[in-house]
Design goal:
Blueprint: H1 13-24, E1 29-38, E2 48-52, E3 55-59, H2 63-78, E4 85-90, E5 107-115, H3 120-132, E6 136-141, E7 144-149, E8 157-160, E9 166-170, E10 175-180, H4 184-193, E11 198-204, H5 210-213, E12 220-223, H6 229-232, E13 236-243, H7 248-258, E14 263-268, H8 272-284, H9 289-292, E15 295-296, H10 308-323
Parallel strand pairs: 10-11, 10-13, 11-12, 13-14, 14-15
Antiparallel strand pairs: 1-2, 1-5, 2-3, 4-5, 6-7, 6-9, 8-9
Helix pairs in contact: 1-3, 4-10
Length: about 325
């Protein structure tokens, strides 16, 4: 089931749509892409733009650096210059070469890649992969733009430097969030996460639950018994799990099912009193302190949140902190 909310789209979908539209119209299009980034760079690895004569889509980080590359793309389009440009950008005033004009102290490598009419099928394949959630990657090199299958554990980004450079990026969302429990807080959290580049699944065991059925932000929604969650929920280094069911007992059933999952984040919503009692029950059932220490509970940053919307902000902030940690 796919979302109706435009904010739930993969961030790069507009870039590929923009490029495809202009290639079909026979107009020149240039792809700008950040191939690597270190330190305080305005654009992180994977940021990209489509530049056409009448406008742009996406961003490589903004500021004077982006402005320069857009101007360069337009100049090369006017001159019908199809040469690829790979350019380091150093964001320090004292750098002897490759100064970007910014002073935020980081570094990045930016690719300027003029797309050819023959690249249209690959651009359209990128577009389809993003809308259909297929496991694909795109690859850029001097050989052109290619779309290739992506194994389940493929890295999000792969950049090889040098004269035989290549860049490969997994299409779609790098990180996936599964919310167990489809109530009002899940709906509010879905609304926030839809803006944060997470692929979002919401599960509940109550058939016909209105807050699940009417959730326009989730990419996937399913009604499943909580005692089957071990096989329903994926594990992996880019998986985040948030448990927020309607009560103590379903919370414990869900936690027992998912505690052994190797994931980036496992969180449980509840008051301190409820969490204390639930953890005591888990210890009595034989779960170790090491296992229970993996659980973020109570969930969210401590900002005295009370409403579903405030709780959603606190949980989303915690997910961002975990995602961006080393």
């Amino acid at each position: 089931m796919y979302p109706t909310s435009s904010s739930s789209r993969p961030r790069d979908l507009l870039v590929w749509q923009h490029a495809a539209t202009h290639l079909r119209a026979g107009q020149p299009v240039t792809l700008l892409c950040v191939l690597s980034s270190h330190g305080s760079s305005p654009g992180r690895q994977g940021f990209k733009m489509s530049v056409a004569p009448d406008g742009t889509a996406g961003s490589i980080g903004g500021g004077i650096m982006e402005h320069k590359f857009v101007d360069l793309a337009w100049a090369k389009q006017r001159e019908a210059d199809s040469a690829v440009v790979l350019r380091p950008q150093i964001h320090r005033r004292e750098a002897p070469t490759d100064r970007s004009g910014m002073i935020c102290s980081g570094e990045q490598v930016v690719l300027l890649f003029p797309l050819k009419p023959t690249d249209l099928p690959a651009v359209e394949a990128c577009q389809r992969a993003l809308t259909e959630f297929s496991a694909s990657s795109f690859r850029l090199s001097d050989a052109g733009l290619q779309v290739v299958p992506a194994p389940g554990q493929a890295s999000a980004f792969q950049y090889r430097e040098g004269s035989d450079w290549s860049y490969e990026e997994r299409l779609g969302f790098r990180d996936q969030v599964t919310i167990v429990g489809g109530g009002h807080v899940a709906l509010a959290l879905s609304r926030v996460l839809a803006t944060l580049d997470f692929e979002l699944t919401v599960l509940d065991d109550r058939p016909g639950l209105n807050t699940l059925e009417e959730n326009p932000y989730a990419h996937h929604k399913r009604t499943v018994p909580y005692d089957t969650l071990a096989r329903e929920v994926a594990s992996g280094p880019n998986q985040f799990i948030v448990i927020m069911t309607f009560g103590y007992r379903p919370d414990e059933v869900a936690l027992r099912q998912l505690l052994s999952h190797e994931v980036k984040y496992l969180g449980l919503m509840g008051s301190k009193a409820k969490i204390k009692e639930l953890m005591a029950s888990m210890r009595a059932a034989g779960y170790s302190e090491a296992q229970l220490a993996r659980v973020h509970a109570p969930i969210g940053l401590p900002i005295q949140s009370r409403t579903p919307e405030e709780i959603a902000i606190s949980v989303a902030a915690e997910l961002i902190r975990v995602r961006n940690s080393a």
